[in-house]
Amino acid sequence: MDLSTLFSANVLLLSIFAICFLAISLQTHPRTHWLSWAAANTLLALALICFAVRSMLPPLAAYLLPNTLLLLGFGCHWHAARLLADMPSKISNVVAPAFAYVIAASCAYLLSDYALAYLAANVVLMLLSVATITVYASKPLRGLISSTGLILGFFFLAAEGVLRTIHGFVSVGSQEPFMIDNQSADIHLMCSLVFVSLTGAFSLALSFELMADRNREDARRDPLTGAFNRREFQARLETILKDTRKDDFGLVHFDLDHFKQVNDRFGHAAGDEALVRVCSEVKAHLRQHDCFARLGGEEFAVLLPSISRENAYRVAERLRECIAGLQFEFAPRDFNVTASAGVYHGNGGELPSDELLKTVDQSLYQSKRTGRNRISIVEPVSGAAPS
After folding, report:
1. Among 22, 126, 248, 311, who pairs with 161 as Cys (CB 3.0-4.6 Å)?
2. Which is it for strands 375-377 and 291-296: parallel, antiparallel or unpaired?
């Protein structure tokens, strides 16, 4: 393909992705990374247009503008990646790389050493590519198939940047910054076409992959408290009961005592605040692989895999004490919320999950009948191996 065709193909593809990202940003939340991707593609398209028509631009603009726009575009890519990974990012992440290039290129202009400007552009571009790869390889985005595609795209760009940087070191005489001549320009534009195709397609895929993951996570969670919901709890309990190893586990079923009085006395907003505080306190005292779920209303359960009888009781007692010790802004200091609990420990034996839940539920009501704010442990039952 000739240069004009390659320029047109790149600009067209960048424009299509920019419009696509902008349109999606108007319909989704959060939309900041979509807007940053749209800005990145727009700036890259403008940079290529400036490269194509640089002979018609004023000398200083033709010298500085194309690479400045190019680096601003890649700064937007880095900014979008950090936003997507929930990392702190400011507009300075977009501007700083281009600003560094402008300083270096200005010095090169004064020295009439265009190879220095070429070298500066490629070093900054290479560093931006590596920084963006690092973000897409970070823990929040690790394991997503689409992030691998983006890593590949920026690795391809970084590798090309390394080759161009080496070329800048060995260049002799005055050169134009970034694109040296028409012979090398078509190679750069072909590489650009591959990069734009990879990053555009995989950026779309990554966002929708993350959205699908978040929707799946939301489907497992109680929307008010963030605890797992009954469906997720039931699924995890079934998994434990079907495990052929039959490790002992603990099941704590607890209920907040007289919680209706909180809603009646202080209002439903206060009741919601109390539920959120209780759940936050409970989660802070559990292991990472424990399953804490809101079964409904003020009824909760905790699944404790691979735990001894004594430790299961200790966990239940610790949770009871923590809940009883909570203070709430909406209530006087002498007001507290208490919890009654039933605890099962064993390997489940041959009991189905509904029978096991019914058994521990009876233990919970034993706690309520004997004064509330206490714990009752299920004794070994028929069909379940004793602890």
Report:
1. 126
2. unpaired
> For residue 101, which of 118, 88, 115 has the smallest C-alpha distance?
118
Is residue 37 within 8 A of residue 80, CB to CB? The reply is: yes
CATH hierarchy code of domain 3-220 = 1.20.1070
Which neighbouring-strand residues pair with 253? 301, 342
Three-state SS string across 89-144, please? CCCHHHHHHHHHHHHHHHHHHHHCCHHHHHHHHHHHHHHHHHHHHHHHCCHHHCCC
Residues of the chain with CATH 3.30.70.270: 230-377
Residue 235: both structure tokens together: 């699924």
Q: Where are the alpha helices (DSSP H) in the chain?
A: 3-25, 32-52, 59-84, 92-111, 114-136, 145-170, 182-220, 230-242, 260-266, 268-284, 309-324, 353-369
Give me the residues of the chain with pLDDT under 50, please.
172-175, 177-180, 381-387
ω into residue 332 within 30 of 0, thus cis?
no
Architecture of the structural domain at 230-377: 2-Layer Sandwich (3.30)
Question: What are the tens digits of pLDDT across the range 314-368?
Answer: 999 999 999 999 999 898 988 889 999 999 999 887 788 888 999 999 999 999 9
DSSP assignment of 54-92 equals GGGS-HHHHHHHHHHHHHHHHHHHHHHHHHHTT----TH
pLDDT tens for 91-147 read: 988 999 999 999 988 888 888 777 788 888 888 999 999 999 999 999 888 878 899
